[in-house]
Design goal:
78% of the residues lie in helices and 0% in strands. It is an all-alpha fold.
Length: 174
């Protein structure tokens, strides 16, 4: 089949082939690729087209076979090395200008602070948790733990100083 015959086939029933490709792929870009591959395959093969027979059926079968072959190839590759979509958070990290090392150390610091907070006495841990994690005001914390606001401020200050001291002991510096 030469280029003129392919061009004539595209003019005569190209839209039907494209519509068929679109139904198979269910995606416009994949359908366009399949459509182009179908006519490229026809150009590569040395067929003689008989216009008395149904040449459109030939192109439908080529498109269908190419699509099946592509699906089998995708399934085979997916069993060998499954692909997965990257979630939005990971994609944002990958695209960001932020240094991966700094991000890792920040996460480690947060984990260490959480471990330190868990070892604190309850009377200090509760005000810290309410203030920093629950965004409660000092007055709200005072009502919750039934202590005066000055005591809450004192416990928050003491908790911060203990955390700072332990972080410095572990080698973390500002």
């Amino acid at each position: 089949m030469d280029a003129r015959e392919i061009e004539k086939c595209i003019d005569v029933f190209g839209t039907d082939i494209y519509r068929f490709c679109l139904k198979l792929c269910m995606d416009k870009t994949d359908a366009e690729d399949l459509y182009q591959q179908t006519f490229l395959k026809a150009l590569e093969m040395e067929w003689t087209l008989d216009w008395q027979q149904n040449p459109k059926a030939l192109f439908f079968s080529v498109a269908n076979n190419l699509w099946k072959s592509d699906r089998r190839k995708w399934a085979r590759r997916n069993t060998i090395a499954p692909s997965s979509n990257i979630d939005e958070e990971t994609e944002a990290v990958l695209r960001s200008e932020e240094n991966v090392e700094e991000n890792y150390f920040r996460k480690e610091l947060i984990a260490e602070v959480n471990r330190i907070i868990q070892t604190l006495p309850e009377k200090i841990r509760i005000p810290l948790t309410l203030f920093y994690l629950s965004d409660c005001s000092i007055e709200q914390i005072a009502i919750i733990i039934k202590k005066p606001p000055g005591t809450v401020k004192s416990r928050l200050s003491k908790g911060r100083s203990i955390i700072k001291k332990r972080l410095e002991e572990y080698g973390y510096e500002r």
